[in-house]
What does this fold into?
Amino acid sequence: MNTIQPAVRAPGAEGAYGMLTSGTLQDADRFSAALYEIMPRINPGIADLEPYEFRYGLDNLRPAGAGWASVTLDAPGDMEARVNCDEFYRSIQIKPRVGGRIVLDPAIERLAQMLCVGLVTGDYSPEWVKKHFYFDLRGFYFLHRTAYLTEAGRMHLCGEPFRTFEPRQRCFEGLPEVGYKAFREANAEVDGLFMKCIGQLIAVRGTPLLLAIAGPTAAGKTEIVSRLREVLQAAGCSVATVEMDHFLTDRDQREERGIGSLGREAIHHELFRGCLAGLLAGQRAVTPRYNFIDGTSSHDLEGRLKVGRTPITIEPGDIIFVEGNFPFLLPEIAGLIGIKVVYLTDDPVRLQRKWKRDIDLRMKYDPSYMRNRFFREQFLMARACYAPQLAACDLFVDTTGAALWLTPEVRRTLKEAS
It folds into this structure.
């Protein structure tokens, strides 16, 4: 692997952005000041911090011992290869501990250190860094930008969006967290068109109908289902909702298996399939209940109700919503679903939403646990879960791009219905 060693440049040598490298790397105050001047080009929210506030966050990343001068850089091409490799993400520890406390995984920390040093020395341009990475202000670390829509997915969805709007989520850039009201307002136009299209499709395809909405954590699935539910009930439809997350097995069991177990082993598969088939047949369903605080299911791996736990009862309806990470990834489940939707928000905004929702309000995770888990799982989930579903869905709602994508069949159906 090619490496760059900024600490051994000639004394007084300047990087491409005019920063004195040798002295700067050896002096934590000078290094922080130099990076502070560059970082607003990566995340404009840095400009809202005082220099001493930025230093507080940066001190948590500073290498022990020789400090920033000890950081050896990967060549840009090698770094790109690293962050596009499954094995890199599988190696990330979710709960590494130092002194009994969960800390940032060493590989994530080293990546952040390299990017900080490379920006100061000029070995990594701000444009290159921003193309491949984003900086989360609240977690104060760098993450790789995940691509979800592959060429296969684009071609499945006609190669271009059905309609686009002004991407209002741009106003979130630089914020440490994002609440739901602001999120909903930013997505109002594309959400409105999406809900209109769903109403037209239901009118054509009839009921009962399973409507599955796939999307990663904090993408907005639950909220859009709630709004669709209100619209459909106002139109006289009875509605049921099945949350796929309630069919998850215990978190510790899933984490032991890793992303490679995505699918049948991550959920109570037979209970899930039976629930959907029963609701379509007009039957009441009794399902597992997942505890999102302690990460445990009401049912054991054999599908038996645990002592002291209470299941969920779901009444059938004209429209049965199914929301989750991969509701139509499994063929035997996909065959039951009448309308398949991927509802997606880009990683930086979802992470901002998770800080507000899961840390501030739910107080659901240890912050470092969440930083490690989010970093590790987005790339792997995109490849294993969302790219395949984008190549199989009927509609794709890209809220960050404010775009609605449709398959040729859906476009024809809507044109004939209008």
Summary: The longest strand covers residues 209-214. DSSP finds 17 helices and 17 strands in the chain. Confidence is low (pLDDT under 50) at residues 4-19. The CA atoms of residues 247 and 272 lie 7 Å apart.
